[in-house]
Amino acid sequence: MVTTETAVMLAFLITNLARILAYLPQIIAIARDDGRAKTVSAATWTLFCVSNLCSALYAGCVTGDRAMLVAFAANTVCCAVIVGLLCWKRRMSRPVLGSHRG
């Protein structure tokens, strides 16, 4: 028989795996965007990144729960990829200072 604790842990792992996969469409959309990906909030994704990092640290340092640590660390990496892509896109689409046309 499956205990409540086991069922909750399985739900946590499954939903976090799904969440990690759900980042992919956002990453692909930003990568394909020809502009600055203005419809994506860098502030929101930075907050998600920091929140996941704090959760990973909490899981590792306070609870000692490796499964939670890995899940939150993976979410942190995915959020960091999104933030990094946004920064790169926005930096690449800025006009170069001192360059004049015509």
Automatic annotation (TrEMBL):
Entry-linked Gene3D superfamilies: 1.20.1280.290
Transmembrane segments: 6-30, 66-88
Keywords: Membrane, Transmembrane, Transmembrane helix
Protein's UniProt name: PQ loop repeat-containing protein
High-level lineage: Bacteria, Pseudomonadati, Pseudomonadota, Alphaproteobacteria, Hyphomicrobiales
